[in-house]
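Worked Example 4.2. Consider the chain below.
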Amino acid sequence: MKKILLPLILVAAIGTLQAQDKEVMGKYQSQLQQLFEKVQNAPTDNERYLANEQAVELFSQAFEEEDSQKWNWQFSNYVSVLRSPDKVFTIISWPVVKDNGEYECFGFVQAKGKDEDDDDAWFAYPLHDLSDEIINREESVLDADHWLGSVYQELIQTSYEGKTYYTLLGWNGCSMLTQRKVIEPIQINPKNGKPQFGQALFKRDKNRRRIVLEYNKEAMVNLRYEKQLSISRENVRTKKDGRTVTTQVTHETPEQMIIFDELEPQVAGMEGLFQYYVPSGKEMAYVFVNGRWELREDAQGRLTDTKLNKDFKPVEKKKPAYQTINSEQ
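Applying the procedure from the previous section yields the following structure tokens:
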């Protein structure tokens, strides 16, 4: 499918839809909801993919409607709709689960750009999941036509020295053996709204464009963005009785961070076979510092409420969001 150009001159970036536009978009919403129920619950691959094909086409038509970017899409957890806080783009993503337990993801990015007269316009790009063809998953810069398919759960907007950065947290059920979570930086071309997936934002790891966590299908792995206490230790030298004494001082600072579980193979010698990977019991974190995601090892995700801030215990593992279909069906 070709990208959809929406040559719309905007009076305001995001405003209120007119009554007639609301009626039109409401019809798209209703029809899409019915189709996604089939995508989720239809008993065969053919029926699910037919409904999905119709949903993709209907989305394409909806994005051609004037002021469609103002519509607040509402679906069940099966379909993720995330809009950047600055309202520059919306990303919609969802999975199709095959009879053999494999997942294929679909989606759209609708983003603001410029038309030929340099006026604000909106563009829509369908996303094509080519996960199986991407060899260097953590190092590749990807686009809408070559996408590491994910259902995105969070969209993080950060800034440094006047530049805005976006980072997505996503999940994919993959296969009967493994599932995957990703930390995915995304850029939007200000001219044509075209998305680029992957960016060198990871400090001291210049070749890494995204973080990919692939692990056992039954394992529970945390990946979330929230404010937690960041623990750091500093060696401080002081003079005492004419001698220099080194003491370690612990600092606890509340910071927004991406918390995730470190993974390791359950059985020795199974490195690289991700169906054997499970959480090691150790938490890691990325904190956005000076325009880069900086890794903090031995992170301890804890509540900032001092009454609850007792001896640290690992966070209870949760089942992945959006996994609403039994892969054995």
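The longest strand covers residues 243-265. Residues 4-216 form one domain. Compare this with Example 4.1 before moving on.
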